[in-house]
TrEMBL record:
GO terms for cellular component: endosome membrane; Golgi membrane. This is MRH domain-containing protein. It comes from the Eukaryota. GO terms for biological process: lysosomal transport. It is found in: Endomembrane system. Residues 191-333, 339-472, 476-618 form the MRH domain. Keywords: Disulfide bond, Membrane, Signal, Transmembrane, Transmembrane helix, Transport. Its main location: membrane. It comes from Ignelater luminosus (Cucubano). GO terms for molecular function: D-mannose binding; signaling receptor activity. SMART domains: CIMR. It holds the Pfam family CIMR.
Amino acid sequence: MILKSVNGQPCGSSNENYTIIIQFECHPHSKVTPRYLYKDECELRVEMMHPTCTPTCSTRMNGNLLNFQDLQELGTLAVREPSNKQFKLSFCKAANGCGDGISACDLTNGANTSIGQVAFQRFVINTETNDLIVKSHIGASKRVRLDVEIKLSCNWNAQGINNLRYLVPSIQGKHFKFSGESSQACIKLPQNCIITDAKDSYLMYNLTTLHRRNGNWKVGNVSNGEEIYLNVCGPLHAPSAATTCSDQYSQVCYLDRRRNVINLGSIPLDFHTVDDVIKGTFIAGSVCVTNPNTTYRSEIEFSCSQYEKGPTLQDINGCTYNIKWETPAACSKLFTTGDNCVLYDITGIINLNEIHKPLDRKYILSRTSYLRYNLCGLLNQPCNHNSDASICFVKNNREYVLGFSNKQLIRDNTLLSLKLVGDNCAYQTKSVTQVYFHCNHSAPADGNVVVNMIEENCIVDIIIHTPLACSPPVFSKCEVNIGNKFYNLTSLSQNYNNYLVRGTNTNAVYILNVCQSVFNTRDSLCPSDSGACMKNLTEINIKYKYQSVGRTNINNTPFIENGELVVRYDTGAYCSKGIHHSTTIHFQCHTHEEGPRFLKQVECSHEFFWRTPAACGEPKRILKTRSKDASCIYTYPDTKKQIDLANVNKILEVKIANGESYKFSLCEKNYTHCSLNGTKCNTIDTRIELKLNSNGSSIPYLEYHLQDSEFNKALIYLVCVPLSESHNFTYAGHKNQIIEVNLLTYLSCIGNETESSNEQTQVYNSTTSNNTKIKHEGAFRDLSTENLNNNSSNNLNGLAINQDQNVIKTKNNTFSSSNKELLINKKLSRENNCFIKNDENEAIFFLKNIKSFHASSSSENNYSFMINQPSPDCNGYICKNDYVFIPRTDIFMKPAVTKVTHSTLINSIANRYDMGQLNGL
């Protein structure tokens, strides 16, 4: 390979310019330094080693080429010991008198035993001592194999190899070891100034800010007339008189009163953390005056400080100078990386994979340009014929790759980001797109997006607010029966934020939540399972800024203590004497909501009181199942309220006529697809999203993204069935590659709520209809049993359809047309102040302790009549065959009646809706 550089200065009197041709070579004897070949009139030719070449007598370490070819020039080295041992050694070539291809041999007592071959010679750096180790061996099997090892220590002033000697073992075996000193062993690699905490891998220290480009740090506490100069994370700018420090690439340089110079350390070694201190050493200084067998070194301790105090000499121990340095650079930062768009840190797990969509997204920049992107994966449509892109810039219908796919997440303190590099752009530089993700629980999952683009430099910043950037909360029990009372603290739980409470210490603020762990935001980086957390406002070290003062879990339950409802969070961060922090919240019954207030702190125990109506209790009731985690909890995109489907503990199976079937769980992010009548099944990961506005309807639904089948989606509509304890699936059909199923459950009665006594029921904005369809805000969903029987699956999760009677029988409600008896459901009855009114607005009928009527009609259909509103509205709804809603209306207002009985009331409703004659009244 050659590189040709043209258009140099004019070449003599000719019309040509000088040209340089660089000829790249790679062979075992390639030289690291460039070599001039020849000059031919106006053309110069130079030979250089190819950048990827590793010739004989060299090695690579951390991407750096280490060249030891000068050792090869030393020739054969003889080693004679007082013990009459005699050896010959060489580097990278055969030693004279040892034989062809032999780099080391034992010549003791006139013998010639080969102990190392040139072909097996290799160079290794001991990362703990920075010594150069040269190894070789001879013999293929362990039984006959001999090994030789030469350890070379750094000595800047050594000529060739000094003090080369044989290390006599106590018992001579098959291993031969030698030691010596050489300037070739003074190997100084670039210093790594980004240090990971030894205990917490998500914490990082960055010392690069301490490097001074145009000067040095002057070490304090040094005797008058003496000076010590120091620089880290880059070269020392040695004083002009300190040539020794310059020649030896010193990092710590000492000048005495007479301006004599001593190198106190050149090579950085083992920078690491011990507790809260960064310790590092600069070794390989000048030969120590008091001990010629060693060299000077400097040991530095960096500690976190709010203010920069600079380096200070603490003491001198023989040939070691001890320096302490208090600096903000030694304060830890939250820093970690994660592959495949998944990251773990102090806040928990962040998984952004759901941000990748089946269709590419667009962001309009101008009338003629836009971004097409799909993060955490590839674009579905290639960009400029490139299928590895994630971000595509389109301008005037031309495409440019602004970012190739990269799924490595980076957490840098409070910033969560992806960096994507694209094609060459302006000035032949690569385009760079930096994507920042911000935790926002109220944003949609795919994010609210803002783009800032500097087109001429091809730099793009994308900011995305999404709940996916928030670690999932840990839930605890919030509903409990104690004695004859039921307590429910769910209404106090914060879904998008936390409670902030000031303690007696003005420098600290408590971060609290109830029923679930605290939410982590840019201003709250508490441990992921903290129910209570304390933030130190003056602490700059993030390692100690947030401290858990109590953890929560699914078994954390309210209890009564001294007549008060109490929630306790235990096992917080370690406090002292084997005790961990804990938090106790005392809930007191009150007519108004006052929020949490600080009560007291006794050593490691933190206490709060909270006056709230939620602590007053209600009559004992049946408890609902609560999700152990967020897997069964979905958020409505419009109201941001949540629905917990843990109670629907069922696997839905949908059978298709061609022998295919699908199984769905509401709490698992996967589904099972079976073909060949169930003989071949695969479980496939998927995304599940709660959405609205499908086909014009505002009924919420769960959307499953399907793969590898004839269907691409499955929609499960969450149909509100108030006052019912059962959860039932009905199959609504499939069309346009979409499977549609209805889940009939009281859990979905969350959208438009009105409160009545201790229960909540759905208010339907429907108009009168005599067909078996739901009308909900203008859109119909056909749920008739006739339609169910026309579909291919007549057995959904144990819910049987009786095709003879056209009636669905359930566990809780059985209808009978043979005994002609009206069934009055008193199981859920409660006090109702419900009045029927005439034109004079007088109360003429009073219903008490009646929750619902169930009746059978002459058409063999079954109806339920529900009274669910207090006066004066007195509105209800009607349910056909336990499934289909005939809408709520003002049925009790018109026509007005002067005398009302149960029979006349119900039959007047039946006539109005053309139900036929109702029996058993």
